[in-house]
Amino acid sequence: MPEWWAGIERIDRPVLLLGAKRSHVPVSRQAMLAERLPRAELHVIDGGHRLHTEQREAFLASALPFLGAAGPG
Less CB within 10 Å around the terminal CB: N or C of the chain? Predict the structure, then answer.
């Protein structure tokens, strides 16, 4: 595991992980990260690492509801 994963399970805020099927980061690694974050949602989109430009509509369909639901704690 990367060094920066140490203590990541202490993050107690909602986290949206937007993964990509064709990213250089394997989906299995994306899922492993999501499992370590207690309040994480992982959305895997059919695209490459630059989802925000390659799959803009799918990116926004995941990101906007999450951001709209965000509130204190």
Answer: C
